[in-house]
Automatic annotation (TrEMBL):
Primary localization class, coarse: Golgi
Official protein name in the record: Exostosin GT47 domain-containing protein
Segment forming the signal sequence: none
Domain (Exostosin GT47): residue spans on this chain: 104-413
Naturally occurring in which organism (per UniProt): Rhamnella rubrinervis
Amino acid sequence: MGGKQASRSKSRFLYFTIALVSISLLCILLSFRNPSQFTEQYSSRNPNSMPQTSFVASLDHFLLTHKAPPLSTAAQIGVKELDDLVWKSESQRLYGEPYYPINTPIRVYVYEMPSKFTYDLLWLFRDTYRQTSNLTSNGSPVHRLIEQHSIDYWLWADLIAPESQRLLKSVVRVYQQEEADLFYIPFFTTISFFLMEKQQCKALYREALKWVTDQPAWKRSEGRNHILPVHHPWSFKTVRKFMKNAIWLLPDMDSTGNWYKPGQVFLEKDLILPYVPNVDLCDAKCLSESELKRTTLLFFRGRLKRNAGGKIRAKIGAELIGAEGVVIEEGTAGDGGKLASQNGMRKSIFCLSPAGDTPSSARLFDAIVSGCIPVIVSDELELPFEGILDYRKIALFVSSGDAVQPGWLLNYLKNMSHAQIREMQQNIAKYSKHFIYSSPAQPLGPEDLVWRMMAGKLVNIKLHACRSQRVVKESRRICSCDCKPSNSTTSVPL
């Protein structure tokens, strides 16, 4: 009996030893796994870790993990039915319990448009990305230009992400139209403009226009609570006059009339969004290391010959080229040009940001994320998120008249004290996060500030949407919802 017990004890000890050795071997094997595989898996589970800021890399991941959902087969409701549902929803918010707090997130309904307006265009960009020889008429690489204006992708990708992976609290996606404050139109107008044949693109624009304007929610408000991303000034140009009531997401206002017709865009209705930077973020470590290397007083790299308001570039260039402490370079396309701009900005105290073909350019945001103080020479420029951000703390604003005066600009910069420069550099380090698009979208990033700005517009949007439904025809002769008096040819928004 004692021998059997001893034998069982030895067996149990042997099993225990084998199990312990097996676990140890497994731990050793796991420790030799590819760390990047672990990082990728961890990152996909934890939205707080390492946000992706590269458009191409983020798009690759997005297309591999998302598929175009089947189009809804639910019965389409009419405008009257939607209006009744909205009334019930708004009444519940206004009078229901619990009390509706003022700081609740904006509720956005994302249209599920046919894939030819969304996923197919993203795949078109991805499949043609390596064709870097494809240039615009002014020599800019097409795909790089699309990246600069890819705000439509970053906003949409965040809105349709599973709620468990989202970090923003300023906006929530709703699935019932009557619950929505705003409606997002996920049509990639810039990709279609640059990568499709001209007539094919125009046909797609007309199809998108019909699809959106046929929606009951559009008809109910005449588009006033709809968000239309048209961030490149050439995109959607042939039909956008039919959607001028919508909230346009723009790079600037351009009051010259070259890109937008009078009455189409104004600050009370539309929203200015920053370009996606062309250069990498100079983070805290980079800023610290580059501080003593900033030996160039003023840096500019780009095309000096531009159209319209951009003619100021050539005049400033002629004044500054060859001056001590100034680097003025003609820009080149491709990765080499990007690296040269990035290195130049990180070695400079001030970066010149003159108007281009439009009042704005990506160069302003390249300078900010590089820790270089922008010197803005663009008399008609409108800036993103102004009202939340005070650009006087991070940039210098110079009139075109002063900038072209011999010696004026250099004297102005040289008279800036070290304390003033240091303070502005510290403010830039804080502000740079507001201009970095990422997946997942980060709190206080540009996607977040979009919805914070929208919150300020929301009451006025609802005012005009409600007013448009009750006015009679005779009232419109007095004043339209855009406040365009019948006896005037100009638009004077409220």
